[in-house]
Amino acid sequence: MKRLVALLLQALGALTLLGLLVGGGLVLSAGYWLRMDDEPRPADAIVILAGELRRAVHAADLYHQGLAPVIYLGRPRYDPPTALCELGFDCPRQEDQMLLVLERKGVPREAVRVYGQDLLSTVEEAESLKRQLDADLGPGPGRLLVVTSPYHCRRAGLILSGTMAEKELIMSPTPYERFDQKWWAHQGSSSAVVQEVAKFVFYFLGTPFRAKTAAAQ
User: Fold this and answer.
1) Is the pLDDT assigned to residue 215 strictly greater than 50?
2) Residue 202, Cβ neighbours under 10 Å: how many?
3) Closest CA to 192 of 207, 180, 176, 202
4) Within 13 Å of residue 76, how many CA atoms lie on the same side as its CB?
5) Is the pLDDT confidence value at 99 over 80?
6) 3-state helix/strand/coil string of 5-35
7) Residues 5-61: pLDDT tens digits?
8) Buried b / exposed e across 7-43, counting CB within 10 Å, b at 16+?
9) Which residues contact 4 (CB under 8 A, 6 or more apart)?
């Protein structure tokens, strides 16, 4: 019995060590595998995922290349810095800032569709986007040119493909946002990797952030 327990403990230790090695390797190589950079091709629509405003700059570039006739933009949850707003500072919603970027880049307002309300996570964005696309373009096959940050591409692609399996996704990270393969040498890249790896864990545990859940807390 003692020998069996010893063997089980040794196996558990070996598995733990293997898990640590694999996990460490994935984290160290995150600068490579988090990014997806597909060759842009003509699509039914360009989708800007909520986040960095520089995503909208790249989306406008793709629009002006004639790669899609319309740009879809979600409404993320609005959490204004109340103390600053009360002092008279501008506290715009993120989608309004995105719209302004697109306008400054020469994208006509009629070419932009804003969808959803108080979207808290990429999962909620994907679900709301599917409903909007089904209503506008009809359900079924199609091609989407998805614009996001370089470090967000891998997880966004997994979530969108899981929600809209019938759609072909072309991931096009904005080139205006820095993300180093040696992420530990750059503060912004390091912060992005830590947050993104944590969000991957939440996603695979099946516990994405949702607006209703957050409101109840």
Assistant:
1) no
2) 14
3) 180
4) 20
5) yes
6) HHHHHHHHHHHHHHHHHHHHHHHHCHHHHCC
7) 556 655 555 555 444 444 455 566 777 778 888 999 999 999 999 999 999 999 999
8) eeeeeeeeeeeeeeeeeeeeeeebbeebbbeeebeeb
9) none
What sign results for the dihedral spanned by CA atoms 56, 58, 63, 69? negative
Angle between helices 153-163 and 122-136 (to 10 degrees): 50
Element (H, E) at 173: strand 167-173
The span from the CA of 181 to the CA of 162, in Å, is: 27
Look-up: residue for tokens 């804003």? 114
Q: What angle do CA 186, 33, 150 make, to 5 degrees?
A: 55
**Side chain identity at residue 13, one-letter code:** G
Q: What is the pTM of this model?
A: 0.83
Quote the tokens at residue 75.
Answer: 């409404």
For the chain, which domains are there?
Answer: 32-216 (3.40.50.620)
Tell me: the pLDDT tens digits for 114-170?
Answer: 999 999 999 999 999 999 999 998 888 999 999 999 999 999 999 999 999 999 999
**Where does 92-182 have alpha helices with state H?**
94-104, 122-136, 153-163
H helix and E strand count, the chain: 9, 5
**Rg (the chain; Cα; Å):** 20
